[in-house]
Amino acid sequence: MNISRRTILKAGLAGLVAPAVAGCNNGAASRGTGEVIYWLWDSAQLPMYTECAKVFHEQNPQYSVKIEQYGWDDYWSKLVTGFISETAPDVFTSHSSRYPLFAAKDQLLPIDEYVAQDNLDLTIYQPRLADRWIGADGKRYGLPKDWDTEVYFYNSALTEAAGISAEQLNSMTWNPQDGGTFEQIVARLTVDSKGRRGDQSGFDKKNVAVYGLGFADAGGSDGQTSWSWYAASNGWKYSEGEPWGTKFFYGDPKFTETIAWWRGLITKGYMPTLAQATSGVDVTTTFGAGKYGMTPNGSWMLGTYAGLKQVKTKLARLPQGPVGKRMSMMNGLADTIWAGTTRPEASWAWVKFLGSKTAQDIVAKAGVVFPAVTESMPAAKAAFAADGWDVTPFLEPVEAGDVFAYPANPNSADVNAVMTPAMESVLAFEKDPSSLAEANDEVNQILSAAS
């Protein structure tokens, strides 16, 4: 890569770095010749990947792995700083919302040649996962390590008190006109300060003690754990050219009517206001305090909900929408190699190992996430069952093929910068859902200018 090109790439990445983040201290000069620096952000996964590194070294004594873990926000800031200062880790955990930009800025090493030379079998992974890491340029940038979908986590003591059965929860339907049986259940779970439920006469929506439905935020451009499944099951899709969006549809009537209905739950008192939901106490903590009847979330949160000992938590399917299906976003993480690594062979050996059944079995038995390798799933199900979870609601959309991808494009940061305040304005009742058409025009202008 020539100097002028490198300068351009650094300039393109510099805007993503938080000013307060210092440079990384793991430059190439400080590394052993066979030592791979590997980063991840989830502390819950550190033990199982430490075990993976041990087994990897036993099988490949010429290589070793040094693992570094940082919290989500610091992780990405430090990573971009590392790209600019050329001190990034050799291998790192990547997210489908981030890697498109990194690939576009030539910061990721394509692995197509490695996959071909080792005749790697990509059919061992859950359907759709491996191809999720083929970029817009047609090159492959990672091997999948896990996957996730969404469900409702519900407080079984509250549902029992409301006379709502598990069967009712798992057969919910919804529509944007009256909310279907889903809204009926949410109303029933909502209780005001005098003990009156949302479906009872005299309910005081201005003094709610327990909301039937909790949420974390307005959802930004993806709505992964807030509104994505409602919109998808209403027949909406994010963009033309999914998952590599070339033209977005946030102004589509199917989307705006979905958001209008969802926002209406606040008006009726069944869901907290945006200000309440984002007041500084996260959605799981509020759920754990018994203030929400149920909350939507992803499978990566199973461990967090398991830690809420003061409530008995169970899982329920997402509701069936107007299209006659229960739709869920299916996302996942992958391990990717920094383009600037000075040890590509060692880095590939580590990535290849992490994508193998041997490593994925270690991941599965930890009972933290769902492994990408299909044959490792029984061990994961057993591990979750041992912790008291029946994870069937997470698995059913995948088995039925009723899943959709996380929206991806190299300009996702810019798209989110438009859609986050736009969605917040709507959910805060500062703007009407129809205003999302204007935001959508701005998003498409960004994509058009970048093409």
UniProtKB/TrEMBL annotation:
<protein>
    <submittedName>
        <fullName>Multiple sugar transport system substrate-binding protein</fullName>
    </submittedName>
</protein>
<feature type="signal peptide">
    <location>
        <begin position="1"/>
        <end position="22"/>
    </location>
</feature>
<comment type="similarity">
    <text>Belongs to the bacterial solute-binding protein 1 family.</text>
</comment>
<dbReference type="GO" id="GO:0030313">
    <property type="term" value="C:cell envelope"/>
</dbReference>
<keyword id="KW-0813">Transport</keyword>
<keyword id="KW-0762">Sugar transport</keyword>
<dbReference type="InterPro" id="IPR050490">
    <property type="entry name" value="Bact_solute-bd_prot1"/>
</dbReference>
<dbReference type="InterPro" id="IPR006311">
    <property type="entry name" value="TAT_signal"/>
</dbReference>
<dbReference type="Pfam" id="PF13416">
    <property type="entry name" value="SBP_bac_8"/>
</dbReference>
<keyword id="KW-0732">Signal</keyword>
<dbReference type="InterPro" id="IPR006059">
    <property type="entry name" value="SBP"/>
</dbReference>
